[in-house]
Amino acid sequence: MPDAQTGASGSADEPIPHVLCDVAALAAAEAAPAGALWRLAESGRQLDANLVRVPPRTRVDTHVEPDLDVLLLVVTGHGTLGTTRGPEPLTPGSLTWLPRESSRSLTAGQDGLSYLTVHCRRPGMRIRSRPAT
Question: DSSP labels for 35-66?
């Protein structure tokens, strides 16, 4: 019988591979809202992952991720990745590497855009002492 913690047979301390969700079905749902449709939330993970829906003709403004490389996989829809070298078309199945410190934007096409991102997990916020001056 599957265990609530691991999602599969075994103890809570035993890491067991298991299916998390059907991203294509989540992204294709007609009532899919804008924003995060799914997030990786398993305890003890070293990765973060998100399934994101961008409404038709909506733009994620130009920004830079200073700390993390990100993989972006287009699940449904079409769009454009804006880069310093110009626009790159995004279609279902496009796998894109967004290196840390790179400038990028996303613009969804007429049917919107759903994509999965995967990157190293961000460390939790820490309170640090100020260095002595």
Answer: EEEEE---TT-SEEEEEEEE-TT-EEEEEE-S
